[in-house]
Design a protein that fits this description.
InterPro entries: GntR_C (IPR011711), TF_FadR/GntR_C (IPR008920), Tscrpt_reg_HTH_GntR (IPR000524), WH-like_DNA-bd_sf (IPR036388), WH_DNA-bd_sf (IPR036390). This protein is mostly helical and 225 residues long. It contains 11 helices and 2 strands, in the order αααββαααααααα.
């Protein structure tokens, strides 16, 4: 990493804020990960610790970072928008979150069936196989992550950058809704098959893909009652 230099147009703190934001946005530090300790990061950026401290404080106020005394600084969200979405959804009704999921995922499935490529189909098969594998382990947390990853691949297969970005910002809420449905333990009655969804996308059947996406979201809504 090259040290940052001051310019007349941009104060050093603003440059550090931009650099850190870019690293977070491109996933150099994943959401939930701890960023490097202050002395190490300041050395990497070629700035003083006070400058870095101001930048971190600004990003904390923006909802991207979380400073935990005695533990370090952690990535709270990948963007200001995802942070705002997470705060808005934190107090939302489960039904409302589910309806937003339906709006995203039904259209994504339809577009995925229209635009899928051979590489997309490979990624879908791998994500589906991983989801099934995690189900067999009985580990609810790992299953939720694998299930979320499959949904993300479906959205990516739609090849709509705006949709993908918005869905990524919705990711935290998606996982929360899945954890709500799945619960602490995996049970047969909470299993929802996604094979038909992937098959419909593979066949290029837009209506069937949208129907399958809508069906499993209806099933989770029914489980909620």
């Amino acid at each position: 990493m090259m040290p940052l230099e001051t310019t007349a147009r941009s104060p050093l703190v603003s440059q550090v804020i931009s650099q850190l934001r870019e690293q977070i946005t491109r996933g150099e530090w994943a959401v939930g990960a701890r960023i490097p300790p202050e002395p190490e990061l300041a050395a990497q950026l070629g700035v003083g610790r006070n400058t870095l401290r101001e930048a971190v404080k600004a990003l904390s106020h923006a909802g991207l970072l979380d400073c935990r005394q005695g533990s370090g600084t952690y990535v709270l969200a990948a963007s200001e928008l995802s942070s705002a979405v997470a705060r808005r959804i934190a107090d939302a009704e489960f039904r409302d979150v589910l309806e937003v999921r339906r709006a995203f995922e039904v259209e994504a499935a339809r577009l995925a069936a229209r635009r899928r490529t051979p590489l997309d189909l490979e990624a879908l098969d791998l994500a589906l196989a991983r989801r099934e594998e995690m189900w067999r382990t009985g580990d609810a947390a790992r299953f939720v992550e694998a299930d979320s990853a499959l949904h993300e691949v479906v959205v990516a297969t739609a090849h709509n950058k705006v949709l993908a970005d918005l869905y990524a910002d919705f990711g935290t809420a998606l996982r929360a809704s899945l954890r709500h449905v799945v619960g602490e333990e995996l049970t047969p009655d909470s299993y929802v098959d996604h094979t038909r969804l992937v098959d419909a996308i593979r066949a290029g059947d837009e209506d069937a893909a949208a129907f399958e996406a809508q069906c499993f979201l209806k099933e989770t809504s029914t489980e909620e009652g």
